[in-house]
UniProtKB/TrEMBL annotation:
Residues 8-124 form the Glyoxalase/fosfomycin resistance/dioxygenase domain. Pfam families: Glyoxalase (PF00903). PANTHER family: BNAUNNG04460D PROTEIN-RELATED, VOC DOMAIN-CONTAINING PROTEIN. Gene3D superfamilies: 3.30.720.110, 3.30.720.120. InterPro entries: Glyas_Bleomycin-R_OHBP_Dase, Glyas_Fos-R_dOase_dom. It comes from the Bacteria. This is Glyoxalase/fosfomycin resistance/dioxygenase domain-containing protein. It comes from Nocardia uniformis.
Length: 128
């Protein structure tokens, strides 16, 4: 099974959270603070109806908040796939630039990232 989830990078994840809750009746199911600055968010997950949106504070200290080629990434795509290593290698062979090799995550999933030839940062992950 494969899915794609938008990953929105914002200037202030707390304000974005409030917006999603007020405007779209979102349920915030996860907010992970950045270790080096707990006032900022490294990763958050909102459920809006049957859909999920990931979001985080943008910037170089945000862990997954990488730059894409010269400008900050504002939207990332998160793809859950059966074999993230194979997807990563296919992307590189198709012209993507590696952002982070696929590695084991603390939750038991495996994830890595690449920037496609159009500047979009993609994360490929296996289910936990």
């Amino acid at each position: 099974m494969s899915t794609v989830t938008p990953y929105v990078m914002v200037d202030d994840a707390q304000i974005y959270r409030d917006f999603l809750e007020r405007a779209l009746d979102a349920e915030i199911v996860q907010m992970i603070p950045l270790d080096s600055d707990p006032a900022r968010t490294m990763h958050a997950q909102a459920r809006i109806g049957d859909s999920v949106v990931f979001f985080a504070d943008s910037g170089p200290d945000g862990g997954r908040c990488l730059s894409s080629p010269t400008e900050p990434v504002h939207v990332q795509l998160w793809a859950t796939v059966p074999d993230p290593e194979a997807a990563f290698e296919r992307a590189i062979a198709a012209g993507a630039i590696a952002a982070r090799a696929v590695v084991a995550e603390p939750d038991g999933s495996r994830a890595g990232g690449f920037v496609d030839p159009f500047g979009t940062l993609w994360w490929v992950s296996s289910p936990a």
